[in-house]
Specification:
The complex is a heterodimer of chains A (159) and B (300). Chain A is of the alpha+beta class and 159 residues long. In chain A, 19% of the residues lie in helices and 32% in strands. Classes of the chains: A alpha+beta (159), B alpha/beta (300).
Chain lengths: 159, 300
């Protein structure tokens, strides 16, 4: 990911992102303290400290930068990364699903879950997955459960 | 294979010379240790959570976020690991970032960063502010670095793929640089590593180490701090390099004070070669219950 390949958000676009997050998860977060940028056709959103522009980047062979926050989807939805979910999830009031210990482990192993969704979870939207206070990630809610979208690198494999 | 049996005769002799007879009592793999990732969870909360699961914690006297842990499960295959609450990290490798003393809002260069144990610790010490340029030369290793930065929730890092030996050509200058060079790894006390070390590998590594040091030196601001570290027990990769830094590059060595850390000073001489007095201010971390490590704080 090169600097020229990304698009940095202006203040209005950051506000718009905050609005989308609030609309989906009921939590107003402040992203204005970060540089927010989007990369690729997939509309991946990243966060980075503002110090970034204090150095001359022209001679660096940059491989990547910042923290992957989530992917913007159609109809003003956002699929948060695990870290994005952790930033948003603490005070989220909508689209949050709390799992018990056994289901949490299944989720972390990459399984889809057959589960009755609580009222605050909207089918065909992304939901933050929790186990008590621990935010485990973000996946897709279906009518009858959760389609597991946890990246392979974050799954527990081989226990 | 037992570590002791893996030692070649010349290794047996040199470690006896450096560490004394005691060295042969150290020869076992150190217990597992972790660093709690305070970017995501407090130490108290984490300990409470994991003690309920039967984990036993033993504090590291000189670093409140590091612990030896005993658990009946594979700690890197737990939910808490996968969601970034902790990093499995050898105790000794927690020292160089502490010596560097990164402050909030500084800009730091980590020249040989992958797989990111120290980079993520620096981010933690900086409370995710400022900026870290985390460089490495191998794309494969960068994958692990990127994965760790994401898992630990690090926001303040730019990952670069460059030959560290040529990094100075960017013209960028830094106030603080961590130079954790590629090394023989003999401080790991791993039998396989002991068997691989020979004169040829040592010459090859010391050439790389000097080249990286010169590059880091050129990237360092006047009065800036450069922390040089290895997980090697070999004087060729440690004191000899620092002697070069002092005599040829004009860097000065600063005392390292970490209360409670069991270590010895840098060697005065090796193989008939007498080092600068300054070299003694470097530290050799004694490989007892931890990796053998060498750390030196240099100032331009």
């Amino acid at each position: 990911m090169q600097v020229k390949e990304v698009r940095f958000y202006d203040r209005e676009e950051i506000k718009e992102l905050e609005r989308i997050v609030e609309k989906n998860y009921g939590n107003k977060i402040d992203l204005s303290k970060f540089l927010v940028f989007e990369s690729g056709k997939e509309r991946k959103v990243w966060l980075l400290t503002k110090k970034f522009f204090e150095i001359d980047l022209s001679k660096l062979k940059i491989n990547s930068f910042g923290l992957y926050f989530g992917k913007l989807k159609r109809n003003e939805k956002i699929h948060l990364s695990t870290e994005g979910a952790q930033l948003v999830g603490k005070n989220a009031t909508k689209n949050v699903l709390e799992l018990d210990e056994a289901s949490a482990l299944k989720f972390m192993q990459g399984s889809d879950l057959k589960i009755k969704l609580p009222k605050n979870c909207e089918a065909h939207n992304f939901v933050i997955i929790k186990r008590k206070d621990d935010i485990l990630g973000c996946s897709l809610a279906l009518e009858d459960g959760i389609k597991n979208l946890l990246p392979k690198s974050r799954r527990i494999i081989g226990i | 294979m037992k570590v002791e049996f893996a030692l070649k005769e010349f290794q047996r002799e040199r470690y006896l010379k450096i560490y004394g007879k005691e060295f042969f009592e150290f020869l076992k793999l150190p217990p597992q240790s972790i660093r709690v990732n305070t970017l995501k969870i407090s130490v108290e909360e984490f300990k409470k959570k994991m003690e309920r699961r039967g984990w036993k914690f033993k504090a590291i006297e000189w670093y409140e976020e590091g612990f030896y842990v005993e658990a009946r499960e594979n700690i890197s295959k737990t939910i808490e690991h996968q969601i970034g609450y902790f990093f499995v990290q050898n105790v000794s490798s927690m020292i160089p970032p502490l010596v560097l003393e990164p402050k909030k809002d500084e800009i730091i260069l980590d020249l040989c960063a992958a797989p990111g144990a120290k980079t993520t610790q620096i981010a933690q010490l900086m409370e995710n502010s400022g900026l870290i340029i985390a460089n490495d030369v191998k794309i494969k290793r960068l994958r692990a670095l990127r994965g760790n930065l994401q898992r630990l929730g690090v926001i303040n890092t730019v990952v670069t793929l460059m030959d560290g030996g040529k990094f100075w050509k960017t013209g960028l200058k830094f106030k603080k640089i961590l130079l954790d060079v590629p090394c023989s790894g003999s401080g790991n006390l791993n039998p396989r590593i002991f068997q691989q070390i020979g004169k040829y590998t040592m010459n090859y590594l010391t050439r790389i180490q000097k080249r990286l040091l010169i590059s880091a030196f050129k990237c360092l601001e006047e009065d800036g701090i450069l922390v040089y570290s290895t997980c090697s027990l070999e004087p060729e990769e440690n004191e000899e390099i620092i002697d070069f830094a002092v005599k040829k590059l004009g860097l000065s060595v600063e005392e390292i004070k970490i209360k409670g850390l069991e270590c010895m000073e840098g060697l005065k001489s090796w193989n008939g070669k007498v080092f600068s007095e300054e070299v003694r201010k470097a530290i050799r971390v004694i490989p007892r219950d931890k990796e053998g490590f060498f750390v030196c704080k240099l100032r331009k």
